[in-house]
Amino acid sequence: MPPRKETPHTEHLLGVRVSQELLQALDEEVEYVRQDRGLIVNRSDLVRELLWQTLKNRRKGRDDGHAH
Known about the structure:
Blueprint: H1 20-37, H2 43-63
């Protein structure tokens, strides 16, 4: 049995409609992360991480004086 992963506290559900193309791209990225990095992840984990990375980069750009 794989080790239990620690997940950040989540208390809200966000529903997002996506195209088949985007869903496939997300699934491919999940598989890449699982195989290349050996991590136990699912779509939700990946989407959360991508959202955080994007928001941090956008905030950094604003703090540096660049609009996104």
